[in-house]
Structures are given as C-alpha cells and as structure tokens.
UniProtKB/TrEMBL annotation:
PROSITE patterns: AA_TRANSFER_CLASS_1. GO terms for molecular function: pyridoxal phosphate binding; transaminase activity. InterPro entries: Aminotransferase_I/II_large (IPR004839), Ethylene_sulfur-biosynth (IPR050478), NHTrfase_class1_PyrdxlP-BS (IPR004838), PyrdxlP-dep_Trfase (IPR015424), PyrdxlP-dep_Trfase_major (IPR015421), PyrdxlP-dep_Trfase_small (IPR015422). Belongs to the class-I pyridoxal-phosphate-dependent aminotransferase family. Gene3D superfamilies: Aspartate Aminotransferase, domain 1, Type I PLP-dependent aspartate aminotransferase-like (Major domain). Residues 58-396 form the Aminotransferase class I/classII large domain. This is Aminotransferase class I/classII large domain-containing protein. One of its GO terms (biological process) is amino acid metabolic process. It holds the Pfam family Aminotran_1_2.
Length: 401
C-alpha cells in the first residue's frame, strides 16, 4: 500500500481539536434540539449572531462549503460531484497550498515546479512547512506539451540519484506567469508521471474562470479542471489535490477565501483540520462568499464581464507592445503577459532594465523572480483599468527606448 500522507501530516491529523465536534453540532431549540449546548468557548454573543462566532469550526461554515460544492460542481465539471466532506475552506489559496505542504511533506522534502513559476510558491511551501522547490527546466520545450513531461522525468531521476526526497508536483493550471491552459491529455500525462513515481499532484486552479478569447489564438486550449478527469488507470485518486479561491476569478484578494479539495484523501483534510486554527477564514468573509456563490445570475454575469474586460485589456496592451516592437508570448488566461524587454534593451541585465523602469515610475517584475530560464523576460500585469494600463505602458516604452 502506498502511503498517501507524510509522517508530519499523520501527526497533524491526530491533533484535530476535540471541540470541533462541538462546533459542528450546535444546539438550537428549534432546528437542532439534540445538538450540543456550547458553554465552553469564550464567545460573548447571542446565539443567532452565528457569523461573529467561531461558526461551524475553523475550515468554513457548513453553508459556505455547500455553496463551494454547488459552484464547483457547476463550473469545474468534476467526475465525482463535490461534497462538503471533500474540501476545507482556508484563508486564501496560499493557505490551502501551504496545507498541502504540511500534510504531504516533511521538512526538507521537495515539490517539483516547472520554470517559470509563481514566485510565492517558494515562500508558501518553504517558509513555514520547510518544503523546497525542485525547479524543472524545459530548455525551449513547450511546458504545455506532452514532451514536457519527459523534462520532469529527467529532473526527477537526477534529483533522486542525489538522494532528494520528492513528494509532489505542483501545476498552476491555468498557468501563472505564462497565462496558458493544459489540455486533458497533457494533464493525464503529468498524472501518469506522478503515479509512476509515487508523487502527489497539486493543481492550483486559482485562474480557472479567468480564461478569455484571444482572436490571435483561435484554437487556444481552454481550461480543463483536474477534477473533471477520470482517474481510473491513471493515478491513485488520493494523490490528487486541487486548490481554488475567490482572489483572482472574483477579483477579491482581500476577502481571503480559498479551498483545498481532496476528494479521496481524508487524511489530508484531517491534517488540514488539525492546524485549521492557523487558516480560519473570517466569518464575515465566509458569509459574504456564501451568498455571492449562491447568486447564479450575479456569478454568471460577473464571469462573463470579467472575461470580456480581460480580453479587451489584453488586446489594448498587446497592440501597444506590438507597435513598439516588444516581443511577447501570446496567451488566453489569467492577468499577465510574458514580455521580452531584453530583446529591446540589448546587453542589459534584468537589474538594469528594472532600474530604467523604476526611474520612469513604472514597476513590473523581472522573470528572474519567477525562475525564468532566460534573462530579459518580465511579467506584465494587464488587468487594470485602461487609464492605468495606458499610463504604465507609456512609461514602460519610454524606459526602454
Ligand atoms: C497561482 C497562484 N496561486 C495562489 C495565489 C495566492 O492566492 P491567495 O491570495 O488566495 O492566497 C496566487 C496569487 O497571486 C497565484 O497567482
């Protein structure tokens, strides 16, 4: 039997606070007369002010979990319909990712990521759980192609021979910073690679609904959730974990609501529950999100308008880039464009280009922060109002001329 959890994850699962069963079953004379009367927690509110208490526990209210399930079942087409017992709500997606590190790895273990990658993975996995990143180089191979998986295989074999303990592969799907989606076949290939090597796969789907139309890429791959794939014969489902939240698709980074979905690995969710005091979402954010996700006409309209506006901003930004001869990689998802300023400012280091940008009063992050394989690349965020974008691009083009 493969072990589907680390030693640390196992011991965290054993630490679930016993009073969570109390919070899970609160007494109410009319709706739950057999529930538990909670005289044990220092809360100074009337019982109907549920939203300002510790609620139903530390991993999201029952109502929010139900709202998430309904929403994800409607939008991500999961093979197995999501139930509240399949997920934990956390204070943002960073927290959900960190819970994966706590539960699946021990300090000094490694998670694999393809270059370039979302820079905060280093902090999220590294700073508290002590999990390191094993960066995979593609050497010009398209990271969204089947062949890319061979690069992971090579990096895995080489790292294994150096005695590194590798526990998981982290996919950002759609990708940050490249703004592209993985096809079902490529996702399956990644999962087969994980299965062959006893690795978990963590799919960060935070940009799932921010996929838009790029007329210059008419056949662009659209988003496919890992939840929608039939895992039979591909990977043990207890090795598959997904995170999503409201920070990006609903433009609400300050709301701090995310979730970790692990449909077949109860222990991962128990380990997460074990440290849920550190990840408890605000009950007010919990309430707001519950009603937001339950409002179908609002969410449908919001997602549609968001996609339209992202496409418009992308069109505007890329027209500006083209007219100034700045090369970039086309994409159709998320909020950024991978631009090659090094191709325009010849023989300059990333620091020198960054300094020129700052001198003109504009900031964009250098590819080096994202583990880019080549220097000169920058990640330009285009999801701004047109006035901001226009001013920023004006400054950018001045800086590199
Ligand atoms: C790929 C990815 N995952 C996770 C996060 C963090 O999300 P949150 O603000 O919900 O913690 C971000 C934020 O930029 C992101 O780009």
């Amino acid at each position: 039997m493969e072990r589907a959890i680390s030693n640390r994850g196992n011991s965290l699962a054993a630490q679930i606070p016993s009073f969570l069963t109390v919070l899970n079953d609160p007494w109410c004379p009319t709706t739950n007369p057999d529930g538990i009367v909670n005289l044990g927690l220092a809360e100074n509110l009337r019982i109907n002010a549920h939203a300002l208490t510790y609620g139903d526990g530390f991993s999201g209210s029952h109502k929010l979990k139900a709202s998430f399930c309904r929403f994800i079942n409607g939008r991500f087409s999961p093979q197995t319909a999501l139930r509240p017992s399949h997920l934990a709500i956390t204070s943002g997606v960073s927290n959900a990712l960190e819970c994966c590190a706590w539960a699946l790895a021990d300090p000094g273990d490694y998670f694999m990521v393809g270059r370039p990658y979302f820079n905060a993975f280093r902090t999220i996995f590294g700073s508290r759980p002590g999990v390191r990143l094993l960066e995979v180089e593609f050497g010009g191979v398209d990271p969204f192609s089947m062949v890319a998986v061979q690069r992971y295989e090579r990096a895995f074999t080489e790292a294994k021979s150096r005695g590194l303990r590798i526990k998981a592969l982290v996919l950002c799907s759609p990708d940050n910073p490249l703004g592209r989606c993985y096809s079902e076949n490529v996702l399956k290939e990644y999962m087969k690679f994980c299965s062959r090597n006893g690795l978990h796969i963590i799919s960060d789907e935070i940009y799932a609904l921010s996929v838009w139309n790029n007329p210059r890429l008419p056949n662009a791959q659209v988003f496919v959730s890992i939840l929608s794939i039939d895992l039979e014969g591909i990977i043990n489902p207890s090795f598959v974990h997904t995170v999503w939240g409201l920070s990006k698709d609903f433009g609400a980074t300050g709301l701090r609501i995310g979730c970790l979905v692990s449909q077949s690995n109860k222990l991962v969710l128990e380990a997460t529950e074990g440290i849920s005091l550190h990840n408890i979402p605000s009950s007010l954010a919990d309430q707001i999100t519950t009603s937001l996700l339950a409002n179908d006409s609002f969410t449908t309209n919001y997602i549609e308008v968001n996609r339209y506006r992202l496409a418009e901003s992308y069109k505007f930004a890329t027209c500006q880039l083209q007219s100034h001869g700045i090369p970039f990689l086309e994409c159709n998802a998320a909020f950024f464009i991978w631009v090659n300023l090094g191709a325009v400012v010849k023989n300059a280091t990333a620091e020198e280009i960054s300094a020129r940008l700052r001198a003109e009063g504009v900031y964009i992050a250098a590819g080096e922060h994202y583990g880019a394989e080549q220097t000169g690349w920058f990640r330009l965020v285009f999801s701004h109002p047109l006035t901001v974008l226009e001013e920023g691009l004006k400054r950018l083009t001045r800086a590199i001329q």
